[in-house]
Design goal:
By secondary structure, the chain is α+β, with helices and mostly antiparallel strands. The chain contains eleven helices and 20 strands. It binds flavin-adenine dinucleotide. The site of flavin-adenine dinucleotide has 40 residues, from helix 1, helix 2, strand 12, strand 18 and helix 10. InterPro entries: FAD-dep_OxRdtase, FAD/NAD-bd_sf.
Length: 387
């Protein structure tokens, strides 16, 4: 029998959520091994748009996003570098009166829940912030403390900080099977078996297979999210932009290039661990950009790519202890918005795993919520018995 490599915690997946959780666990003195099928930051966490956005979050995610944003602002204290974080502000543009009304309703809804980070701004203020925008804009929502960062650099910085605290990263080490013997968890890989008291599944779009092995199937599916980056152009846009009526995520880096996306769906190949670009769909996005910035009409695209991301059916992540087994935890299914949450969720996951209670409630992200919903839908569908 193979010798078993031991740790206190095994993390399956070296994306931002795996590396951030590993770092926060190691800060509490825990011995961690991260098992990564490809290489750290190979998938969503290294190839995303870098948006550090609290703007537009679903209500249950807002407390996490606001907490995570404070970590972004102090990233150098945590990692010794800032991951390229630029607090550029994020602006969601309205292009019609009806869209501006939608923005007002959103901000009023947030206010009714006590959240005041999203502010309505009028057309003049939008154009003052971004003078190169097309004149048809009608206003928007502005979040001053949001921004963007460099995804590969950030995830690598988490990895290096974790390594400095003794975390071991094994790349090219896919976990084929997970299994509990007694209280301990074991991960079988082509490089041998790894054992630990606790296990965290942070395997992005591949997490569903592992949760199924633990007897907890989750409705999670992969999507290939696309981005493109343009040639360099003179500085014209400072904020990170989104739109209200159509998909858009848009920012200009200091080097002049512009990154364009906005949950544009390409092709996800889970088995081949690969995303493919669908150029016809990218064209639509290019059209949005030239509508908003007509002077970019002749700007060339340098590169386009697709990253494989995990989506759940209610568009919220799973951040949870297992409901069927002891010592097993999950953090996956970030639905195209998990980069911003990575620093904060890693901290909360470490608290969940070590203290049982995180400092912010994770109840909305419990793994059994899908099952509970399916059961109550089935009960609703039962015929009423009349006497
Ligand atoms: C194109 C694109 C743009 C995006 N833009 C933004 C944005 O602007 N802002 C934002 O907040 N979010 C954005 N996101 C979403 C964000 O990138 C993800 O939500 C986040 O990176 C998810 O991190 P993760 O650690 O859960 O997953 P991943 O980064 O996918 O990491 C999971 C890791 O687990 C490994 N793994 C899987 N199975 C196994 C196994 N069996 N054994 C060992 N290892 C395994 C994988 O190889 C992978 O490295 C974007 C995503 C994409 C694709």
């Amino acid at each position: 029998m193979n010798e078993i490599s031991e740790a206190d915690v095994i993390v399956v997946g070296g994306g931002l959520h795996g590396t951030s959780s590993a770092l926060h666990l190691a800060k509490r003195g825990v011995k961690v091994i991260v098992l990564e099928a490809d290489y750290v930051a190979r998938h969503s966490s290294g190839v995303n748009a870098g948006g550090v956005r609290t703007l537009g979050r679903p209500l249950p995610e807002i407390p996490l996003a606001l907490m995570s944003r404070e970590i972004w602002h102090g990233m150098t204290d945590l990692l010794g570098e800032d991951g390229g974080f630029v607090p550029s502000g994020q602006l969601k543009i309205a292009e019609t009166e009806a869209e501006l009304e939608t923005c007002r309703e959103r901000v009023a809804l947030l206010a009714s829940h006590g959240f005041t980070h999203e502010k309505i701004i009028d057309r003049e203020t939008v154009l003052e912030l971004e003078p190169a925008l097309a004149r048809h804009v009608t206003g928007g929502i502005w979040v001053e403390r949001d921004g963007y960062a460099l995804p590969y650099r950030t995830t690598t910085a988490f990895r290096l900080a974790a390594q400095r605290l003794g975390v071991r990263f094994l790349e090219g080490t896919p976990v084929r099977r997970i299994e509990q013997r007694g209280e301990r968890w074991f991960a079988q890989t082509p490089r041998g078996t790894f054992g630990a008291q606790k296990m965290l599944i942070a395997s992005g779009a591949w997490s569903g297979e592992l949760s199924k092995q633990a007897g907890e199937p989750v409705p999670v599916h992969p999507e290939g999210l696309m981005l493109m980056v343009t040639h360099r152009v003179a500085p014209f846009c400072r904020a990170t932009l989104g739109a209200t009526g159509r998909p858009l995520s848009f920012k200009q880096f200091d080097n002049g290039t512009v990154v364009i996306g906005g949950k544009l769906i390409g092709i996800a190949e889970l088995a081949n661990r690969h995303g493919e670009v669908d150029f016809m769909r990218l064209v639509k996005s290019a059209q949005t950009v030239t509508d908003l910035f007509p002077h970019l009409r002749h700007l060339g695209v340098n590169r386009a790519w697709a990253g494989v991301e995990a989506f759940t059916e209610d568009e919220l992540p799973v951040i949870s202890a297992s409901r069927t087994a002891s010592n097993l935890y999950y953090s996956f299914g970030y639905c195209g918005s998990g980069f911003q949450l990575g620093p904060g969720c890693g901290k909360l996951v470490s608290e969940l795993m070590l203290d049982g209670e995180p400092s912010l409630s994770l109840d909305a992200f419990a793994i059994d919520r899908f099952h509970a919903r399916a059961t109550s839908a089935a009960a609703d569908a039962l015929p009423l018995v009349t006497h």
